[in-house]
Amino acid sequence: MSTIVAVDTFDLRFPTSRLLDGSDAMNPDPDYSTAYVVVRTDDDGPDGHGFVFTIGRGNDVQVAAIDTLRSFLLGHEVEPLLADMGGTWRRLVHDSQLRWLGPEKGAMHMAVGAVVNALWDMRAKRAGLPLWRVLADLTPDEIVDLVDFRYLTDVLDRSEALQLLESARDGRQDRAQRLVAQGYPAYTTTPGWLGYDDAKLARLSGEAVAAGFGQIKLKVGADLDDDRRRLAIARETCGPDVRIAVDANQRWDVDEAVRWIKELAAYDLAWVEEPTSPDDVLGHASIAERIAPIPVATGEHTANRVMFKQLLQARGAQVVQIDACRLAGVNENVAVLLLAAKFGVPVCPHAGGVGLCEIVQHLAMFDYVAVSGTADGRMIEYVDHLHEHFSDPVRIDRGRYVAPTKPGSGAQMLQTSMREHAYPGGAAWAAG
Amino acid sequence: MSTIVAVDTFDLRFPTSRLLDGSDAMNPDPDYSTAYVVVRTDDDGPDGHGFVFTIGRGNDVQVAAIDTLRSFLLGHEVEPLLADMGGTWRRLVHDSQLRWLGPEKGAMHMAVGAVVNALWDMRAKRAGLPLWRVLADLTPDEIVDLVDFRYLTDVLDRSEALQLLESARDGRQDRAQRLVAQGYPAYTTTPGWLGYDDAKLARLSGEAVAAGFGQIKLKVGADLDDDRRRLAIARETCGPDVRIAVDANQRWDVDEAVRWIKELAAYDLAWVEEPTSPDDVLGHASIAERIAPIPVATGEHTANRVMFKQLLQARGAQVVQIDACRLAGVNENVAVLLLAAKFGVPVCPHAGGVGLCEIVQHLAMFDYVAVSGTADGRMIEYVDHLHEHFSDPVRIDRGRYVAPTKPGSGAQMLQTSMREHAYPGGAAWAAG
After folding, report:
1. Interface pTM, i.e. ipTM
2. What is the mean predicted confidence (pLDDT) over B79-93?
3. Which residues form a coiled coil (chains A, B) (predicted)?
């Protein structure tokens, strides 16, 4: 048996605020960061890598939160932990003392996500397969074993989840082949950051269309006149057939959101993302009803499966945007994929940041092969930043994610990049 | 002008798990703890004390979260910070990078609460008044200036809040006098911890009635037969005129909660507290509708004002239980008091833990004098633990909180207690 002998954490930050990459109406100057964790064993098998994505200050708090979980892993045998990821998840999430810091939300919950994802990375590497395929090869019983149905059973219980998975079992192999051959649809947020000037917006929008993307996304919500002008530029550049979504990053109150969106409706919006507080389920439902048929998209800041359950119950989200690192890792995202499948709502993962594309693509591809069984109306966000720091960076071909083939979850960063972006001692910061 | 020269933090823990004080269906063995902060200035005026309450592991993460806020205070002039607590709150809560760790929930949000409360403690001490009186002496305009109405305006905006406060302005002085003369109603959870045996439950229930409490509370949710037996003992001991509330501490799923509560309804329940996930607004609403007329009480784990707004909108809470340290301090609690007043729902604060009674009594008393204008159906939780560690411990007289008269918020711990409970080096832990 192999034993976990180290849970090493790292505070890694990228000085992205210098170029206003990632700027939006709520986040004017993010420094993309990861609270990074490596789980090491005493055998020759691969390590497990995971992280929490943050935007700068507070990344040290996130590292401290991951550190508290060390005792759940150190000295434990690897195989039973990896073989029972449902049980492992419960032990981490339901520790009664640590749970108090959430419960199941904020820094402590995301820390669990980093550790859970690191274990999945290790499991996939040891299986010699990309994570999406490890998940898609599980039986329906094995998949529901990953899910904690606590607080979900009034809407979805184990037996109904099993039925959903059984009904998607036929065709898994065909879809996996199609995925490998054709990839998975993507859209790009690269053109739309609020800090970019009009010329850069036009140039990048044109490049996105030329590269084959069927949808782009623009940040909005700081100034209505600016939004109108920028949407006009994007629509003019893209033509009528490329979808344009907008993202307010929680900028508005409920009534304000409705008024503002109606002012922008003429530009044919693919969806409106994060119109208000991510906690406001009833607010999202009210907005969605009043701006229909424009869909509301949300989820990158949705704290846990209980909040996703309610967004679906209340019809507050017509597009579910899971995030690989906001929830408590792969297991809780599987729960959300099942909830979305039950409600027939498409999942279009949030990505960008640093490393989010690399991980979350596996979840969308698993969804396609084994859960929803379709890619219709689905696509993964793509931003062309910081991929060069990862050992298996995403590949985009004609506006689609190419299915990863290397073993693991995609989370592993290059050692040189880790050294250079260590905060505050790394070369990237010394130069700043 | 005076300047802030130190923001000192402390990891303080009490080994309460040794006696099962505080044990319930979700928290079998808490070690009551505080991530404690002292804000110091370069003048001779008093310091400000605040803290986050936790139950053990993770208290160090909470300290790390408070540490990130140091730069918002160090070197700043004290008077403008204290004079504009609304602006100070916004700067702390809306820092775009730190906000990512919530947003507005979990460790980072509670850290803001500790700092905000420490500043209120300082302001009250410098005014030479107890916090409740500082707040109750503010004009309606000054009170609404404390509140961030972002994400609330679909339900409550500044002008409506002003009207509520204006209509409670008459009678403020009478109510303040009555409060000083008669105190504020309390109920006690002292008898009801799940780890206590039947004899201890009966003895403590009897003592509570003899001490003049009109309501006690029992922990439930681990085992239905145990709950029935313990409720029978409590009801037998207390007689029919003392109210008995039960608290499930988030133990149940929605349908399970309804079934379980119906089994206990014969014991005449004053309220059912935290029946399910604190995030499940729609679940609370469903439970409340199906167990009516038994009221649902919740709030001690409600993350922010947006969640409280929805609990009230959806009629998921018939009793609002604010917590002094879960929300972002006094300011956000003022927002919740205003929301509850608008909906006519009584606020019965959560307390216990360590130091929670000391702080939260000020908020309930402010509510009585200046917001709701009534104590009908209101009471503050009381538990008889750990008060001896505070410089101005709560006083209970015939089942009522005696209105504090000393300057400050009540948060200040004795220096000897702080030394002894420093974790892990203090004497309380060396002896363990």
Report:
1. 0.97
2. 98
3. none
